Amino acid sequence: MASVSIPEITRFIEEHIPGFHKKRLKSLAELKLKKVLQRKNPYLYKAKFVVSAPDLVKAILDAHLSSQEEAIFGGFLEEFAVFICARVFGGKKSSAEGIDLEFERDGIIYIVSIKSGPNWGNSGQIKKMIQNFSLAKRILRTNASQKNIVAVNGCCYGQENVEEKGEYLKKCGQSFWSFISGDNNLYTSIIEPLGHRAKEHNEAFQAEYNKVVNRFTGEFIQDFCQPDGAIIWGKLVRFNSGQETK
Predict the structure, then answer these.
(1) Please, are residues 84 and 181 in contact by the beta-carbon 8 Å criterion?
(2) Model pTM?
(3) How far is it, in rounded angstroms, from Cα 126 to Cα 135?
């Protein structure tokens, strides 16, 4: 079995992590207040007694960015996982729908759907993943009918006490990284390289973030506040959920 060295891991991360930061910054710069307002729950913030326009704008923006960054970083981690597996087991990006990684280990062909963490989807999304696994298995069996094919839901962080799910295995955190690399300690080895120039990238992001907060706050006060500064919740809810805004 081959292995991947820490210098190789560091080099890959240093070459590719700037792409995550660029996408993160670009996404922030292109945001529009009304798009963000339409995607978040105004009832939640009313129930939490958010009465300040700057506080509401910041809370909504932060919630939006958190979910968006998770998706962007998930794409980076998927590329990284494929890289690791390619070096160790000859893994490759699968051409099958919904399958991110395909490789052979110990005489078994594994098809892997990679997610960031263990709580990634609802029952419908999990059902779709299982359907993708079934289709990929049928396709692979036409070329490798004698091989055992095992489906895996791989999660880059977290834990899963019971990995056997019937139609597939679910491997999370240390179990996942060890599975695709053969190294039980890989999951801790990758954390330091991920901080490559993080301070510098975050300072650039924070500067743009402050501009967006200021701009959004001004727009929000103009469109959704009374002259005395009070939030017009009815107008905000109508904008978010009313039929006339469709």
Answers:
(1) yes
(2) 0.83
(3) 14
Give 3-state DSSP helix, strand, coil % of the chain, rounded to 5: 60, 10, 30
- What is the pLDDT tens value at each position of the chain, 246 positions in all? 678 888 999 999 989 888 889 998 888 888 999 999 999 999 999 999 999 999 999 999 999 988 888 888 988 999 999 999 999 999 999 888 999 999 999 999 999 999 989 998 899 999 999 999 999 998 888 765 677 999 999 999 999 999 999 999 999 999 999 999 999 999 999 888 888 888 888 898 999 999 999 999 999 999 999 999 999 999 999 999 998 755
Write down all domains in the chain, each with its CATH number in brackets.
1-75+197-246 (no CATH), 91-196 (3.40.1560.10)
